[in-house]
Amino acid sequence: MRPTRRLAYLLAGLVTATAIAVPVAPPASATFPAKNGLLAFQAVTADGNQIFTVRPNGKDMRQVTDGPGEATTPDWSPDGAWLAYSLDECTVALVRPDGRDQRTIPSQHPEGCETAPAFTPDGRHLVFEVYDAVNNDNAVWIMGIDGSGRRRIGTGPYGTAATPAVSPDGQTVSFLSLPPDERGEIWAMDLAGGVAHQVSPTLNGITFKHDWAPDGSRLVMSDNADQADRPVNVVTIRPDGTGLRYLTDFRRPDERALAGGYSPDGKWISYRLEKGSRNALMVMRTDGRGSRTVLPFSSFRPRNIDWGPGGR
Asked: What are phi and psi of 123, to 5 degrees?
């Protein structure tokens, strides 16, 4: 198996020079149908990456986690009661949106990493990425939110399976797999396991973050995310691999639109817009029109944006 790029970078400092280092990727998640609530994201603080929330109108930004350790890749539970996230990129953790009840789910792969958690539609399970260093295996797993009932679902055709996301009907898990040329492809398989099928074409530097529309009709991602000499644009595609559609049309390498996820009502997509060293948190209609600013351009860099449900 060839480990994913991000896990390799992250584990390099945790293993000896003779050990195999493998990637951990930020998570992708599914947005389930509901009213629109808060946006969650990670951003760098004096204590490293931490989780924040903000209203879609840009008001009431709040830091949810404050350590110890770095908190990344937030994913909302379907009822909005919890945020799942990665602690130090190797442990699955949970926290209430107001910062209470922070807890970790002890890893069963102490020589590797468990990361990128995403809720299933029933709210009772998490899919997540595992790198098992003993068996040199990178795969998608599922477990109860208390860590019980762990089961390996499967991996991609290249031995990599990063940033899993579950379809809104709870039947399919999608994930990023990296071919030998280190471009990217979204693949999917039945949540029960089985043979994976390719969803997206091979794209240069496809983002680790991808998300399902609440009605299951499309997935959103971006291209060229690790290509500094290319622009980055938001892309959607149907789950059967047809209908590739570009929603943004940036043409300069210093203009980069990196996908977050769908709004629970299915009408909007969140993304980070980079122009040089400045970043803005944006939303746009699912046809690419009507862009609105949530957080204006600054040095503050929201990443791994996930849109949570509001009151029902």
From this structure: 75, 5
State pLDDT tens for residues 166-223.
Answer: 999 999 999 999 888 768 899 999 999 999 999 999 888 788 899 999 999 999 999 9
Q: Return the SS3 of 5.
A: helix
- Residues 304 and 49: beta-carbon distance below 8 Å: no
pLDDT in tens, 18-46: 332 333 333 445 666 679 999 999 999 99
> What is the rounded CA–CA span in Å between residue 238 and residue 26?
22
Structure tokens at 121: 């539609």
Determine contact, residues 33/310, Cβ cutoff 8 Å. Answer: no
Count Cβ atoms below 10 Å from residue 170 Cβ, excluding itself: 15
For residue 74, the Cα-to-chain-centroid distance in whole angstroms is 8
pTM greater than 0.85: yes
Burial of 110 (0-12, 13-18, 19+ CB in 10 A): exposed
Q: Report residue 24 as tokens.
A: 């951990």
Looking from the CA of 283 toward its CB, the CA atoms found within 13 Å total 22
End-to-end alpha carbon distance in the chain: 45
Domains along the chain with CATH numbers: 5-309 (2.120.10.30)
